[in-house]
Amino acid sequence: MRLLRLAVLIALVLACNSWMLAFDPGIHVDDPQGTGTPVGLTFTFTSDALGGGLLSFTNTSGVTFVNLQIDVPPPLPLAPITCGGNAYIHCFQQATVAEFATIDFFGGPGILNGALFQIDLGATGWTPDATFEAFANQAISTPEPGALLMLATGASAAWLRWKSLRRY
User: What is the pLDDT, as a whole number, of residue 100?
Assistant: First the structure.
């Protein structure tokens, strides 16, 4: 009976998460077609009136953007932020504070000097008319490996506790 309850609970959580993820704000950095606004190592951009947008830029800094750090305003309503694209191999949400979150893009070829790139905020999900700040070639701090170890330890302890209670 407990196993059935656990299975139902897991199914509910997964169903709710998949429904919620469909509306999560996202940010993608890709290679576009056409022309773009010239930018240097630091630039800002704004979401549209719906809280989304598709913006094109040209790297005119004189150097390749080996990484890109974007400080994003909190989405409205608050939701997990997704990131991706084809200009960089990796992206992750570095930090969240009340005023903004930091999304880091790194790895891969980056954005060559003179190359076009595009930032896709999706159709909606962000605060309307919000300002985003971007910084190229900043030092990026990666997540601590200890965080994964703590998660695994906690999950193992919970599983062992569940196993010991199940025997009785």
Answer: 82
Is 123 in contact with 133 (CB distance < 8 Å)?
A: no
CA distance 73 to 99: 6
Number of domains observed in the structure of the chain: 1
User: In terms of pLDDT, which residue wins out, 78 or 138?
Assistant: 138
Indicate whether 145 pLDDT > 70: no
Distance CA 7, CA 85 (A): 35
Evaluate the omega torsion of the peptide bond into residue 75 and state whether it is cis, within 30 degrees of 0.
Answer: no
104 DSSP assignment: E
State the Cα–Cα distance between residues 30 and 53, nearest whole angstrom: 13
In a domain, 77, yes or no: yes
CB–CB of 108/27 below 8 Å? no
**3-state helix vs strand vs coil in the chain, percent to 5:** 25, 40, 40
Asked whether residue 150 is assigned to any structural domain, the reply reads no
The whole domain housing 58 covers 25-139
pLDDT bin (cut points 50, 70, 90) of residue 132 is very high
Q: Specify if 10 maps to a domain.
A: no
Q: State whether residue 9 is helix, strand or coil.
A: helix
